[in-house]
Amino acid sequence: MQYAYLALDILLMAMREKATNGRAPLVVFLTLCVGGFTYLFGPVDPVPRLHAAAESPDREIAVKVYRKRVSLLPSNVAVIARVYDGRGELLLEKEVFADGWWYALDSMFRRITFEGGEIRIGPKWSPDEYVMIRGEEYAVAR
Asked: Model-level pTM?
C-alpha cells in the first residue's frame, strides 16, 4: 500500500511542474514498475524485517521471526527465528526456512506457540506443518 502512495506523490509532483508534464507518464510508468517488482520480489536489500513476534505466558522467553532476502534472482527468502530471554538477551538465532517468494511468505510463519518447553513456529506450506525449536536448543545458551 505504501508504494501506491509513493506513486501518487510522484505523479502529483510531476504534474505540478510545468516543464515535466511531458514526462509525467514516464515517471508514473517507472514508479509502477518499481512498485510491482518490489511487491513480487520483495525489497532488494538483505535487511531482516520483523514478520511475527510472541512472548511465552510466563514472559521468560520471547521469539521474533524475521524474513530477509538472500538472493534476488532466483528469488530466495530466509526466515530467521530469534529466541530471547526475559532480559532481552539473544539465546538462539536459527534459520528455519530458506526458499520461496517474498509475497508467498506473507501468511507463513505467523503463528508462534509455546508448548511444554518447545516453541512451534508455523504454519509452513500446510496448516499442520510447524518448525519446532526444542528447549534444549536455547537452554544451552542460558
From this structure: 0.70
